[in-house]
């Protein structure tokens, strides 16, 4: 099973990022989990909606192909 985690905090030592890493570590034999980095994306721009940067296309593809999504927010 493929899971992606989206952490809503950009802080390096974010508690939510630590929680995502703990979930990933403790469940590594149950599912494959990738923590996606929202910090690499630019701000939303309506002018680019139909032709977003490659990083956005890759992010959306990973979410679409995942069996589940975990969202951790501050």
TrEMBL record:
<protein>
    <submittedName>
        <fullName>NAD(P)H-dependent oxidoreductase</fullName>
        <ecNumber>1.-.-.-</ecNumber>
    </submittedName>
</protein>
<dbReference type="Pfam" id="PF03358">
    <property type="entry name" value="FMN_red"/>
</dbReference>
<comment type="similarity">
    <text>Belongs to the azoreductase type 2 family.</text>
</comment>
<keyword id="KW-0560">Oxidoreductase</keyword>
<dbReference type="GO" id="GO:0016491">
    <property type="term" value="F:oxidoreductase activity"/>
</dbReference>
<dbReference type="InterPro" id="IPR029039">
    <property type="entry name" value="Flavoprotein-like_sf"/>
</dbReference>
<feature type="domain" description="NADPH-dependent FMN reductase-like">
    <location>
        <begin position="1"/>
        <end position="74"/>
    </location>
</feature>
<dbReference type="InterPro" id="IPR005025">
    <property type="entry name" value="FMN_Rdtase-like_dom"/>
</dbReference>
<dbReference type="InterPro" id="IPR050712">
    <property type="entry name" value="NAD(P)H-dep_reductase"/>
</dbReference>
């Amino acid at each position: 099973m493929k899971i992606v985690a989206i952490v809503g905090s950009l802080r390096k030592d974010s508690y939510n990022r630590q929680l995502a890493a703990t979930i990933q570590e403790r469940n590594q034999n149950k599912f494959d989990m990738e923590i996606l980095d929202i910090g690499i994306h630019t701000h939303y721009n309506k002018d680019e909606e139909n032709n977003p940067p490659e990083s956005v296309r890759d992010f959306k593809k990973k979410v679409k192909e995942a069996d589940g999504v975990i969202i951790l927010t501050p």
